[in-house]
Amino acid sequence: MLETLIKHNYLNSAMIPVNRPLISKEDISAVTEALENTWVSGDTPPIIALEDKLKEILGVSDVIAVSSGTTAIDLAVEALDIQPGDECVVPTFTIISSISNLLRHGAKLTVVDSDPVTWSINADLAAEAITSKTRLVVPVHIYGLPVDMDPIMNKVAGTQTFVLEDAAEALGVDYNGSHCGAIGNAGIFSFYANKVVTGGEGGAVATNDAVFAERVRYFRNLCFNPKQRFVHEDLGWNARLSGMPATLIASQLQRLDRLVEKKINIAQRYLSGLAGHPWLDFHPPSTVFSTNTYWVFGVVLKEDAPFDAEELQQELRVLGVDTRRFFCPVHLQPLAKKYPITTFGKMSVSEKLWNRGIYLPSGLGNTTEEFDAVIEAMWRLVKK
After folding, report:
1. Best exposed site among 50, 96, 149, 220 by fewest CB in 10 Å?
2. Which domains does the chain have, with CATH numbers?
3. What is the model's pTM?
4. Cβ density class 192-226: b for 16+ within 10 Å, e for less
């Protein structure tokens, strides 16, 4: 199987890609229609359809489509008017875009370790880290299994602390009957090429806070004065989403349930094929509050494995399998020395995930033959 895939030279290389997007005939037809109608920019039918469908899915009053998931969280930070010295509680195990604009604004970050089961921020520790001065909490739902939101929401109840969910990896994920991204004060989503729903690029901010939503729209569109265009009181961005990615996203949102189900099926294939592997631990299929939708299929090497994550990645590359390391924790980033970042307690779980975690090819457009070849490669290393 592995030799056959390499011989057929997938994607003009010998590598099984870590992600291949799934674009359907319906998606192509939708994009063709958009082009024929010149729906390329502005509040066109694809933008309206995207925002309306996401509002329906999440059960929120406002969705603002933007150019990327990173832009979504950046605009949220602007809308909140984060000031130098504002205290924010964030996970250490996250992609840098979750916290980058907070650092640009001079916020003081308290970073919290991961939960050993979910790999998302440890909610009990996060609740402990929240103080009367905490301006913002950013729970990041990791790899398709959400943060346990109740301890955080209970801690901030009745306060002015804003909860901004980073649900870039959690579209279609349920938490105790609520949709991730619609539990806190606001949530952000990404439609990058490796997401369950993709426009190649794209993002969205979701909220029930009308004032916050209006400020996000304001900063998204260069802070144009609604009464007199080209007159500005603030600096904003052109963060609008263009027509083609919006069309793809709107088309795929119509079949979100099927796409999520396909992700779960990919994970089940891996869990079955790798059952009993002596070196690997896995993200659990479920917790008491959620079902794992496996945005990516991650594995963590046990302590007695002969490789660390970097070495395993190199070994699999030799066998024609592309992978990705897990996130480097914020507190270990070289830039951490330049900014006001404080760790809350030990960081042992996130450091283990960084040193011993990788995710395997698990894109919706990847094939069953590729998944089986990856499984074969993982077992081949044991016999090496």
Report:
1. 96
2. 2-20+256-383 (3.90.1150.10), 25-253 (3.40.640.10)
3. 0.95
4. bebbbbbbebbbbbbbebeebbebbbbbbebbeee
